[in-house]
């Protein structure tokens, strides 16, 4: 195959550039000193602990130099996503060769001293990690946990019409679930207003220690697989560098031509049909160019080259072998005596922001603009007095989100695994649709190629797309069932780690926060039952660095609106918002909601009767259903024990419970003690697993008196009230908890407890006969008399 653009001179130069990148990569893995091998290599020049991955690196470097060529030849705007992010040395080497590395880290200068530091810092205490971590300029995908590269790539390309996202996918990585589903992203990429993604499947044949699936299936099956996914696969296969350069360059020329044709057609004629985007299948030897054999065992082209091809450098002959290997790249042809890359080679790299390591899309905060937000107060539910009206909190939130979409037509998207409607955000379909480039048939509702609602039934895909979208400077919201957000626990982990690290990197600009709405939550999974009941994502979130984690449990629609506005304005955080979608009582008017959310936690005076004195008990609640049960319990208590002084504390911002030295939102001990007292019983009704509340408060003065009720893995397809009953979170149980802990309740306690027991028996008999909750439970309202009902009086109908 020929390519006009590639003269023999250019091939030779590109090969030299590739050798330079490979040399710097090997140097990073092995060398402590003597970076230009000016002296004979000795053991003392080698790091004592060799930590890194070589096998994928020569392939990554090969791709890089070829992308550089097309950036220059076609003036392309490319970012490069490295699935096998364990190939960190390669990407660091290229950022260094392009000069970006020295610009952001001036002490890693373009000379022998800088080279020494570059080599030493890699996988070294006080230095940089071994992966394409946030410290690596040009990276938006660490690739430590494999599987997310392609979803990230498509997320980056959405609404970036001029961007081409090259995405290297390891053949091992291609075996992961998230990667397997992410090939379908091409059904969601609109060639009119989105950029392009070029997947480069890197078949180097092996994972850590075994063969990969895709490297061991016949060519026609492989081709058919990717054809079936809707791509045009282009094969680049071989191990002879000069031939491979020519083949790769020619293939990239064709690929660029195809991408341009697709985009031109779509942009001139509008979207007509889903394009068949090109992709590359690159088959090269694993560890390409490293020693063929080490200690008599094949190494180049095998799994043995995955990490450090020669680990034990004390072994006779290994130092010599390393020296021979490094000298095979002919460093004296690549770097001048001072250690600087020769100018004719340096000239191969693109300039300025066209360098993939300096492309601002890979430092998305540079592009970030505040959203144009409507006034959330305009969506307020009118609440004449607490509990007077019912509303579906997320439906109200959906109206706000609808207008965020409308006002930000190219910088905000909604992501959901098919739950936008189910979670009651249906209002968004008044202004947009579900995005799809695939066939649309009569009967489809709200499906269109330019939709802003990204729905695919893969939490991985949604999470990956959103992360890619955020990391390149845009905004979004992920709406998910609470139980199934666990599917992306580890993706969330990786993103939270990324955010945490970027906080310490001055050149990385803050990005929009990752916002989750978790609805259809544990307490109201009426259709689905036990499998759908799991509030544990909050616990996962709470494990991460407090600086990047926020958890909100707004008790009603107006507080949910405030919190949503807050999330959309926040930066560099993960905001977890848990809110119900079922009709429920509304507690706060907008004015009160704004004040309550600003504080994050507070006494609800209208529900309390301890004004002017010490309370006998604090009834705390966090989450919409626990708040409802708490208020119902408070009402019962006040009717039965009028002298009892009760304080009601509601928590919207869960992290308020933590100490202010442990979380930026945390309360000081003084403020915590003021709310929760230092010695009174606290009955805490919590949305999730109770132990988290203990964990957050274990050092507080009054922790010994804290009694937490929450979800304890009791569930089924049953009535809403029975869910709280079986988990001991119901109003009667909370009332009993108070009776058990507060001596002041006095002589009437025995009768009240008996009435509670009888009521719970009545509840069970009623639901088993009628299939729904007792009318007095269904129709309960704050402020109505309960005493006679508890005592078995007249029932409402
Ligand atoms: C999800 C996940 N599982 C396991 C690993 C451990 N791991 C690191 S590299 C690797 C092999 C990767 O193979 P491939 O994607 O083909 O990359 P390459 O061969 O180019 O190094 C594995 C299993 C990981 N990083 N992420």
UniProtKB/TrEMBL annotation:
Pfam families: XFP, XFP_C, XFP_N. InterPro entries: Phosphoketolase (IPR023962), THDP-binding (IPR029061), Transketo_C/PFOR_II (IPR009014), Xul5P/Fru6P_PKetolase (IPR005593), Xul5P/Fru6P_PKetolase_C (IPR018969), Xul5P/Fru6P_PKetolase_CS (IPR019790), Xul5P/Fru6P_PKetolase_N (IPR018970), Xul5P/Fru6P_PKetolase_ThDP_BS (IPR019789). The keyword Transcription does not apply. It comes from the Bacteria. The keyword RNA-binding does not apply. CDD domains: TPP_PK. Keywords: Lyase, Thiamine pyrophosphate. GO terms for molecular function: aldehyde-lyase activity. One of its GO terms (biological process) is carbohydrate metabolic process. Its EC number is 4.1.2.-. PROSITE patterns: PHOSPHOKETOLASE_1, PHOSPHOKETOLASE_2. Residues 7-366 form the Xylulose 5-phosphate/Fructose 6-phosphate phosphoketolase N-terminal domain. It is an enzyme of class 4 (lyase). Its cofactor is thiamine diphosphate. Residues 581-782 form the Xylulose 5-phosphate/Fructose 6-phosphate phosphoketolase C-terminal domain. Belongs to the XFP family. This is Probable phosphoketolase. It comes from Desulfomicrobium baculatum (strain DSM 4028 / VKM B-1378 / X) (Desulfovibrio baculatus).
